[in-house]
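Final paragraph of the annual report: two paired records, presented back to back.
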Amino acid sequence: MEKKYDVIVIGAGAAGVSAAIWCKRLDLTILLIEKQAKVGGQLHRVGNPIIDYPGIMASHGIQLAETLQEHIQALHIPVLQAEVLQIHEGRREVITEKGSFHCEYLIVATGVKDRLLRIPGEKEMLDRGEQYSTTKEKHRFEGQKVLVVGGGDRAIEGVLNVADIAEHTWLVHRGSHFRAQQRFVEAVHKHPNITIFMQSELTEIVDQHTLKAVRLRVQGREQLVHVDRVLVRIGMEPENQLLQGMVLHKSDGSITVDEFYRTSVPWIFAVGDLVTAPELRSVSWAAGQGMVASKSILLDRMREKG
């Protein structure tokens, strides 16, 4: 007979792991589903020290992700590595590539993904695996011509990380001012190896075997620039595909929830970056949301039982 869980959690980033831990603590039967081989979500992309999670000082995101892994193993929380293909609302069923599972409540913590430009040549570049970290894979940029697209912290940190070792760098931003921290903006303007194009757009990535070029629209004028590396850093967007057409969401794609992180479908909750504004995202906030959703589910069950 197929087992039905009290709660299924989709996504094993900080929010999902926190939800799973709290479900375990509250004696709710739990299944944590994660499509990647390791838990941690976006933490695997953080190369800088993490100093804002109380009680843990991590030198980088992977270290904190490993701590999360140890925690769920110590509590014997079952983790299924599989991609979720569909959520069936009527049957309260989560359909994965490795089978289907039923639950009383669902917590979705699928996080965010890179926002794409959706221009010619971008998909081909990503399919070739040309998406590198400017901290963990900094060596790949030595002596290279590097173009970075974006105007926030991630874009500006990225170009600053490689500007000293690259042959030359360009920073392309479609706006008239940067959204990044002022100290980053000042450093970019002062750096002699960074050319800044404001009110400009990358319109095409041209792959010519070993020679790559990009087409830019610089303040309305077309321009061809020869580069070796292209880094698109234009922000993140919610990984909301599983819930599209099922629950209410905001104009930016984030899921609409109440103060208990319940969506417009009463048995489905959503937590983490999937529901949080970019300027408020943090590991500690995500973990707190996982706790709130789990306790809310317990309270729901207690009310139902009278």
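The closing record of the year follows.
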Amino acid sequence: MSKTCRNPETLLEPLRPNAEPVVRLVVCDIDGTLIDDDGRIPERNIQAFAELKRRNILYTLATGRMDRMARVYVSQLEVHLPMIACNGAIIRDCATDEVLARQALDPADAATLVSWLNGNGLDFLCYSADEVYYPPTSRRIERFRAYNKAMRQYGQPPILLLPLPQTPTDAFYSSLVKVLAVVPDARTLARTRAMLAEKTRCSGLLSGPAFLDIQDKAATKGHALKKLAAMLRVPLAQTMVLGDHDNDVAMLEIAGVGVVMADASAPALAAAHYRTGAHHASGVAQAIACLALDR
């Protein structure tokens, strides 16, 4: 059975029961959710957020990216609330640049990760709140270089990209909030997850088909949503979240309304209340219209 709204074009698939609360805060993932495959926000999604603003419904973004790689979307949607970055390891007020909450990796775990990933020849990146560190052979860092080049036209400051220190210090390891490992196949993913369970106290969640986000177990979008909702004095039962992948599960499970895109991962589907349209077909706008605005 599907859920229909006043707009006949909007059709959502219920996945598990919820109380259908009045939504006071909308939190939206970026990649695979808000933006299309070309990295652009569809016009209908922009209009949906503009209508949230007009109706005084709060909204912000939650992403696996560092916040500096999401500032262009913050600007486009006129997001004035703190945003959730690095899968919940960072909550930052982008207007003041103040980090309101930070969940770092344990330095010993960070050292273990860097050593193991280097030793096994995997591509990886290390994130602090403001910098991205890369090993000499990294190919993934090219995405950040391309991003920096593209953002010049928007007047956005570049992300600081730094070579991984040859002799990392405790201060360096203490600064890290996330390690992104490129896992090109199922065997590499299984080996990496086995290492995490055996040698660290970290979690490893997929944020894309070949990208494993490795962080402290307390660094989740769910934990960050709880903190942000408390800051804003909004009950979790009156929050709506939208996502598509495993790293969104923690916030999908605790929100009053959890929505996933049409092609969401199996864990995300299991955690959500509704499935909406595809990310490239303005599924976000469809869900907002039906569940936050159609009241």
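The chain has a mean pLDDT of 94. This concludes the annual technical report; the extension proposal builds directly on these records.
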